[in-house]
Here is the input.
Amino acid sequence: MSFVNVPQGSDFPIENLPFGVFSTIGNERHRIGVAIGEEILDLSAVKSLFTGPVLANQQDVFDELTLNRFMSLGKAAWHETRVTLQKILSKDEGVLRDNADLRSR
Here is the structure.
């Protein structure tokens, strides 16, 4: 279960975190993100939290404008990313939940 409010029946619960590229009205730069509930987590804002064996030296992949470089890292990187995301979005993990500054980014 996530600390992020995920409406009942949402296509994007913590178990299904689809990657995509997004922009916003206030920031038209394309960024890599992941949907959870009705929110998008900007992976460039939390890239320092990816400290596993594959991504520790590849964190800048989340600064790209497309998913191409991230996808080229392969299955081990995708899995590590998903496991890290599920951990930091968990209701039991405070690294993102309790950091208002990081969440605002």
Observations:
- The helical segments are 68-72, 75-88, 94-97, 100-104.
- The beta strands are 19-22, 31-36, 39-42.
- Residues 88 and 94 are 7 Å apart (CA to CA).
